[in-house]
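Lesson 9: reading folded outputs for more than one chain in a single document. The general rule is that every protein is listed as its sequence immediately followed by its structure tokens, and records are never interleaved. Here is the first one.
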Amino acid sequence: MLSPFVRAFRTPDLRRKLLFTLWIMALFRLGSFIPTPGVDYGNVQVCIAGQPTEGGDVLGLINLFSGGALLQLSVFALGIMPYITASIIVQLLRVVIPRFEELHKEGQSGTAVLTQYTRYLTIFLAVLQATTIITVARTGNLFPGCEVPIIPDDNWSTLVLMILTMTAGTGLIMWLGELVTERGVGNGMSLLIFTSIAASFPSAVQQIAAAEDGVLNVVLFLLICAVVIVLIVFVEQSQRRIPVQYAKRMVGRRMYGGSSTYIPIKINMSGVIPVIFASSLLALPTLAVQFAEDQTTGWVQWVLENLQDPAANIQIAIYTLLIIFFAFFYTSITFNPDDVADNMKRYGGFIPGIRAGRPTAEYLRYVITRITTVGAIYLAIVALIPTIAFKLMGVSSNIPFGGVSLLILVSVGLDTVKKIDAQLQQRHYEGFLR
């Protein structure tokens, strides 16, 4: 897996792209430690040191994707989460708004318009999230039990400045990600997420080592990670290939078609999106509890007992059902069997043994349903293996590094290596032709 990187550093053009990408990733990590104006950085460090975990609610998820910048209340506190949310919303709106679907089918020009809409929505969501986080920090719910003030001077001008700073930080992150996509290697946004999650790995190992039987738990944790990584690589590389045959047709004096190809269908077509959806939706009740005035009411106690701990049985059951539901939901949005069947019929293609048109669409829908079932179960297993393992080891389940983190790390790593290898092969062929 590392051989493409070694060969890439020997190629001057790819070496410049890799160094540029690494420089942007380092700049992104540096911004995670620059405090937002109005925040007492010393008091923040005192509160962080007094917390047993880094949280398992929606703020913990944002903190994971920001590389720990959220709890630092830095200029990059929001991380890449607003952009991820905006991208998902724009994709979902393609089903609701026909204009969005038309733009998607227009190609590069339509994609550019959708990208612009995503940017505007990202800034809007960044303002909302920054306001929420600052409100949580002011009320003391960001670090429960910490008595020192995080924002000593909470007048309206300071709060507005903090909101603008965090929003500007999100805009800067979005710009850095686009720079990596244009001038670097791989998808810029994915690599920034990769950087954030990888930065949380040492703290996760440190928390496990601090528990009872720390050395043994660390060894077990690394073994579990290795097993999960092997499972992720195997499934992410697997695909169902549906053969497609194109009939020969005469256009003028030339013969076209007669070739055979296949439709590659991945087992996990939805990626990590269902897990993010499920985690965010399941964390909303816990976030609502933090704003409840009376902590002794029935629904508050029920949420604290059943939804706050990731290892609780009800939490695991609801989490699994949500992952399966969103896996089917997101796959149905991104892959339309009717459109694929119509395109095949338009160009004279057919699946051997299946008639073109509606029978082809029904066959594709049947295959997608079976594959998505396996992919949804796989996502649920990957997301729950670390949580269940931590529970058996007696380690806190709120450790911000689990199956979702490994899934993102491995997926982004594989995709980046493939893109580097493709550029190496392209340059190899060019050199050969010369």
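And here is the second record, again sequence then tokens.
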Amino acid sequence: MNFKSIEQLVQLAEQGGIPISEVMIREEMGASELTRELVIGKMLEHLDTMEQAAQRGITEDVRSRSGLTGGEGKKLSAYAAAGQSISGSRVLNVVSRAIATNEVNAAMGTIVATPTAGACGVIPGCLFGLASELGATREAMVRFLFTAGAIGFVIANQSFISGAAGGCQAEVGSASAMAAAAIVEMAGGTPRQAAAAAAIALKNTLGLVCDPVAGLVEVPCVMRNAMGAANAMVAADLALAGVHSVIPADEVVAAMYRVGQAMPGTLKETAMGGLADTPTGRAIKQQLFGGSNPLDSSTEREEG
């Protein structure tokens, strides 16, 4: 059961009368030569790690070593709980957990790279923000991750998931597409609706640059995880409502690859352009590192 494109993935699901998550479980069993129980067990371990990070970020006073980020997930969670938000508690429960997870990463905590550490908040934010709302069982939560992984598998093999290679569209954009598809399946949508959600989410992040201030995976990375999670939710709702992506998912992935290739190097994790090259961005770099190279000095991980 091999697939190289999102269309092939959808066809396999439709032909077998199974969800995308099941296609990915069987793919992983074949690739790893592990039993179903072991494959699912490994994903359960990832689920637990993600949950611990998201929970830590909204209950503890997490702060990065640089002091640039921390505490915003907890703050937003409290704001949502007060019931006076503009966006609504469901959106903000998702977004707060996305922020919280990425803040834990910035503070050198344990996270799961989904698909990278710099974009690690989007998928767990959507999962843990929506699971109770949708009455998801632990099995459904694990399947959420397999569905997300199936979309990420295609993107990683057909385009980029690295900010250094393709900009933040490749990181937060990919994570948003992965989450959108997984939300659709968890909400009872079809494999084709999941593919539409992935396409909608990804095409709305095309051209997103990777411009980490001072070379750290903090600003604007944490807030981009927030927006990536919100984008995934809207894309999922659009697909569940029957809205189709005019440009098929695989063509969106190919377009993202071409955009990434065309993107100048200053906008691909070098901290030489975008927000990193603003007066405030340069001042922060000087304050933290003086004349040294922040990419050499950074204690943080992955692309922003």
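What the second record shows: The chain has 14 helices and no strands.
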